[in-house]
Amino acid sequence: MPAMRVLTGGCACGQLTFKATGEPTRVGLCHCMTCRKISGAAFNAFVIYPVDQVTVTGQIRAWSATPESERCFCPVCGSQVFDRDAGDEIEIKLGAFDEPNLFTPTYEAWTKRRETWLCTPDLESYSENRGELF
């Protein structure tokens, strides 16, 4: 049996870290206005894990974009690291992982807000949410 994959990451200053074990549920992009505003970028790239596969260490601060979710960040450097929902999932920002090129998105949400110059071929697209909280 192959060893379970363990990936690490965290914030820019290193105070807030995480360890993700196993494989994610899905990988996507989001073009909604909240993701654009909090990242300062044209979209948010993320990976979804079951919450019981992720361990978080360090202090966090959070604010709620909706009653069902929390946007979590490092209180020291302000790095956006992950989002939590009221259920059983955690959304980790791709840029928060210690290594690049770990995941390839398979879908994108809120494409009605996507920049016209951004080409995302071969992704399943949703005009708004894909049905889940994230």
SSE topology sketch:
Elements: E1 6-10, E2 17-21, E3 26-30, H1 33-39, E4 44-50, E5 54-57, E6 61-66, E7 69-73, E8 80-85, E9 89-93, E10 107-109, E11 124-125
Number of separate helices: 1
Q: Count the domains.
A: 1
Categorize the overall geometry. globular
- CATH homologous superfamily descriptor: glutathione-dependent formaldehyde- activating enzyme (gfa)
Major sheet summary line: 8 strands, mixed
Average per-residue pLDDT, rounded, comes to 89
CATH architecture: Alpha-Beta Complex
Percent range for β-strand residues: 35-45%
Instruction: Give the SSE order as H and E letters.
Output: EEEHEEEEEEEE
Low-confidence stretches: none
Predict the CATH topology.
Answer: glutathione-dependent formaldehyde- activating enzyme (gfa)
Strand line-up of the largest beta sheet: 6-7-8-9-4-3-10-11
| N- to C-terminal distance | 32 Å
Radius of gyration: 14 Å
State the name of the first-level CATH class. Answer: Alpha Beta
The helix content is: under 10%
Protein name: GFA family protein
InterPro entries: CENP-V/GFA, Mss4-like_sf
Family: Belongs to the Gfa family.
Keywords: Lyase, Metal-binding, Zinc
